[in-house]
Write a structure and sequence with these properties.
This protein is an alpha+beta fold. It contains 25 helices and 37 strands. Strands 1, 2, 5, 6, 7, 8, 9, 10 and 11 form a nine-stranded mixed β-sheet that branches. It has a six-stranded antiparallel β-barrel with strand order 15-18-22-21-20-24. A hairpin with a 2-residue loop joins β15 and β16. α17 packs across α18. The radius of gyration is 36 Å and the shape is globular. Bound molecules: adenosine-5'-triphosphate (ATP) and magnesium ion. Magnesium ion binds next to β10. Adenosine-5'-triphosphate (ATP) binds next to β5, β10, β11 and α7.
Length: 884
């Protein structure tokens, strides 16, 4: 059975049994700050299990893209050695939202596995949570498994949770014995070694775990199951490892060819090829879902996986970028099931290639840095590279810690792993506090507010900014550090408010949340500082300034127009910019993120080189054209398919429902978008691009302004130009010429000045009245304090004086502010007897500094200007010592 057929047979089986197929959610979960990546089929239904959101249907079936590389479910380290673990895999799952429970879940699984897929009953096992007698009895009743192959297991494997908080429950798993011909072994040992392979996990979703770890019953006991497609493929295709089944063999073949080491050459090399094949899937799917390689959060995880693949390539002897060349083969294997792969292929290839190149050069430069650190440590007599130094290399140069460790090992230097981990932990702590805290607190408050079920909000704010008499449905606040639902918020208190309807836009699709006020009973007033939405509920974060805000109260809402109107301008302008970019730079340009705020707009897009000035100008003109045409925008609701067929641009990695909203500037741009827009493009006013730059490999960022923001910016610039004009005393068109002239003049003066100083020093020094060279044991020694001058000029002076002397020693010193500079020069005939380097080193010691150089020429600096005269007085004695 081909993998494509297995996927389909699963969907068919459950569809025939009343399940509605539902598309995979993106790898980046929406609106869930507790989770970095989708790690199971149930993630997109979390709120449905909690009773906060309508499920798509009481019975649902999915094939979900999953990633297990962080947090509670992290299989990264297993990938390579393990024949059954991947970073990215496809999870087949059937779901019941309060519909059927354990009985049918077990019945369905058994029927599919044995009747439809025909797996041999005598090699199958079922496990249940040890306290779950009901599940145990059901397996006995519904399957033909003998009692000794129904096992009771502990919470480690048979109690499932998505993360530390959220829905969870006891579970029951289906396993298969991969080597029935071998003697029986203990269950623990058999699962560890991979002999007993877990195929399918049926989770009996019963609880919600809160921050404190407490379990609360869910509104409706539900079913969530997950079976790994790759494992099923291995078993149904009769091969021992996932990597020998059809989802992987073409990739491994291609990898073997690119690397020049065919799969099967040696166990070690095979491990590296498996890592490469596995990581190709996770990296490419992450890119397709809009994640960009970066230095934090999801982007950092992506970068780490990519770099891990590159390092395994190096282990196989490759020193050049290769990974990107494998992207097309993944499209061949999985493109039919996942059209996003094809749509994003070229951009992914380009991004990966740039990342690879960057990493390889980082490694080359970084390795030198590590060598230097090691030498320094050695010079101090240490035999261990300190963890803090290693962390510095890791952080500033992006060197993988494994690389640092490897180099240390090669250099026979110890590595302070603990110190490194400690430094890393402290840094993570810092960034966690900086970034996640606000969102996490809001999530906790949201949890408390939504505890008693959903209270959907109607959004009425697309075409008005005020609404009278909305009703306060729920409140939540923090009490002694814990989020709790509340009946009222008093003066000065902060908390969350849910209303029956609202005009406040909740942050989404790049558009920031509205700000404004709630007022009630003539006296009460609260400021709205943030608005988020979850499960159809608008959550207003407020600060009560006067009065008490109570549950059940009627309030008047008002969005600040100085906030919303400019935001709308920026949002419609973002769409125009997007369309203009694609027109000018090609359809390969893809949105990679955006920010629409009242004071600016930011648009990130995939593109592989800087946008040239001329192109940028044309793009700006194009947007302004559409503004000046004053086109009415057209906003409609329609079915998703209809919208896409009409040419609406959808974003990959974005989750859309069946009904979508389209925003159109007829004739130019049409996007799926839930945001706020102007009624007519003419309202946007002037549009100016203020910057364009790269923010990650293959990703550019444009920042632009509209309306008053653009006017202010242009005015400010023209004011600045006026200031420049008056300072220079010329008109604008002559400013540049004037500056060039001034620069040339200045350069000439500098040169003149340097010549003068030189003459002064040289004239006075050689033969003049103010003391020429002195004689020390028959050697001419010229010692001078000279006026402050740039370092290059000082060297010139010393050099010139030396040639004038013919044979002898020159030492010059100068001081300025808190700085001393010294230069020593010795003519060639004397370098055997007097060394400039040694001389300068001793002198530098006297002025609080250090330095050195060659025997004929050396310089040094110091920090104690007062000591310069004494140091210069000591020169004669030092020279005498060297001569003697
Ligand atoms: P295991 O104990 O084998 O690591 P798990 O208990 O972590 O698996 P679940 O969380 O129960 O697995 O996930 C449900 C199913 O998803 C598993 O039965 C398995 O078929 C599949 N699966 C889990 N993790 C992976 C992975 N890293 N790669 C491929 N398939 C996986
Ligand atoms: Mg399991």
């Amino acid at each position: 059975m081909k993998s494509n057929d297995i996927r389909q047979s699963f969907l068919d089986f459950f569809q025939e049994r009343g399940h509605k197929p539902h598309p995979s959610a993106p790898l980046v979960p929406h609106g869930d700050p507790t989770l970095l990546f989708t790690n199971a089929g149930m993630v997109q239904f979390k709120n449905a299990f909690l009773g906060r959101e309508e499920p798509p249907a009481p019975r649902t079936v999915t094939v979900q893209k999953c990633l297990r590389v962080s947090g509670k479910h992290n299989d990264l380290e297993s990938v390579g050695p393990s024949p059954r673990h991947h970073t990215f895999f496809e999870m087949l799952g059937n779901f019941s939202f309060g519909d059927y429970f354990k009985d049918e879940a077990i019945r369905f699984a058994w029927e599919l596995v044995t009747d439809v897929w025909g797996l041999p009953v005598e090699h199958l096992y079922a496990t249940v949570f040890h306290e779950d007698d009901e599940a145990y009895d059901l397996w006995k009743k519904l399957s033909t498994l003998p009692e000794e192959r129904i096992l009771r297991c502990g919470a480690k494997d048979n109690f499932w949770a998505m993360g530390d908080v959220g829905p969870c429950g006891p579970c029951s798993e289906v396993h298969i014995d991969l080597h029935p011909d071998r003697p029986q072994v203990d269950w623990e040992e058999g699962t560890e070694s991979g002999r007993y392979l877990e195929l399918w996990n049926l989770v009996f979703m019963q609880y919600d775990r809160d921050e404190a770890g407490e379990l609360r019953p869910l509104p409706n006991p539900s079913i969530d199951t997950g079976a790994g497609l790759e494992r099923l493929a291995a078993v149904l295709q009769g091969v021992g490892s996932n990597y020998d089944a059809d989802l992987f063999t073409p990739i491994l073949d291609a990898a073997g060819t690119v690397v020049g080491v065919p799969y099967g050459s040696s166990p070690d090399e095979d491990t590296s090829l498996r890592v490469i094949a596995d990581h190709l899937r996770s990296v490419t799917f992450l890119l397709a879902d809009g994640v960009i390689p970066g230095n934090e959060g999801r982007g950092y995880v992506l970068r780490r996986i990519l770099r891990r693949a590159v390092r395994h390539g190096m282990r196989l002897g490759l020193e050049e970028p290769f990974f990107h060349r494998l992207v097309p083969v993944l499209g061949e294997v999985m493109g039919d099931a996942y059209p996003e792969l094809e749509a994003t292929r070229d951009a992914s290839v380009a991004t990966i290639k740039t990342e690879e190149e960057k990493f390889l050069s980082t490694l080359a430069a970084g390795s030198r840095q590590v060598q230097e650190e090691i030498e320094e440590a050695r010079a101090r007599g240490a035999d261990v590279l300190p963890g803090a130094r290693a962390f510095w290399l890791y952080e500033t140069h992006g060197l993988p810690v494994e690389t640092i460790e490897e180099i240390a090992e090669e250099e026979r230097m110890g590595f302070d792993r603990e110190g490194f981990e400690e430094a890393l932990r402290r840094q993570q702590e810092r960034s966690r506090q900086a970034a996640g805290e606000g969102k996490k607190r809001l999530a906790a408050l949201a949890g408390a507010l939504l505890e008693d079920g959903v209270v959907e909000t109607e959004f009425v704010g697309y075409d008005r900014l005020a609404e009278a008499g909305a009703k306060v449905l729920r409140l939540a606040k923090e009490e002694r550090g814990k989020a709790v639902s509340a009946a009222a918020l008093g003066t000065g208190e902060r908390g969350l408010v849910a209303l029956d309807r609202t005009v406040f836009y909740a942050e989404s699709g790049g558009q920031v949340a509205d700000a404004g006020t709630l007022t009630w009973e003539g006296v009460g007033r609260a400021r709205v500082t943030d608005v988020q939405k979850e499960a159809g509920v608008w959550l207003h974060l407020v600060e009560v300034e006067e009065g008490t805000l109570r549950q059940g109260q009627q309030v008047d809402l008002e969005v600040a127009d100085r906030h919303r109107l400019p935001t709308q301008r920026n949002h419609t302008a973002t769409h125009l910019l997007h369309a203009a970019l694609r027109e000018e730079l090609g359809e390969g340009v893809r949105q990679a993120g955006s920010l629409v705020a009242p004071d600016r707009l930011r648009f990130d897009f995939t593109f592989n080189r800087p946008v040239e000035a001329g192109e940028l100008r044309r793009i700006e003109n194009r947007v302004n054209d559409w503004v000046l045409r004053a086109v009415p925008t057209r906003i409609r609701e329609m079915g998703y398919q209809e919208a896409v067929a009409a040419g609406a641009m959808a974003l990959f990695g974005e989750k859309y429902g069946d009904r979508v909203r389209t925003v159109e500037v007829p004739g130019f741009s049409m996007e799926l978008c839930g945001g706020c827009h102007v009624g007519n493009t003419g309202e946007i006013g002037p549009f100016v691009v203020v910057s364009e730059r790269g923010i990650a490999s293959g990703v550019r960022r444009i920042e632009a302004l509209t309306g008053h923001g653009a006017i202010d910016w242009m005015r400010q610039r023209s004011d600045q130009l006026a200031d420049v004009e008056s300072a220079l005393g010329v008109a604008a068109d002559r400013v540049v010429g004037e500056i060039a002239e001034l620069r040339t003049d200045l350069k000439a003066r500098d040169k003149e000045l340097a010549d003068l100083r030189m003459k002064m020093v040289a004239g006075a020094a050689v033969g003049g009245d103010s003391g020429g060279p002195i004689e020390v044991d028959g050697v001419k020694v010229l010692i001078r304090e000279v006026p402050p001058a740039p370092a290059g000029e000082l060297r010139n002076m010393a050099d010139t004086l030396r040639s004038k002397l013919g044979s002898g020693v020159v030492v010059i010193g100068t001081r300025e502010d808190a700085k001393v500079s010294l230069v020593a020069a010795v003519t060639d005939d004397l370098t055997k007897r007097v060394q400039a380097g040694r001389l300068v080193k001793e002198l530098a010691g006297m002025v609080g500094g250090g330095g050195g150089g060659r025997p004929d020429f050396a310089q040094a600096g110091g920090k104690e200007p007062d000591k310069l005269p004494a140091a210069l007085d000591a020169v004669a004695e030092l020279v005498r010592k060297q001569l003697g």
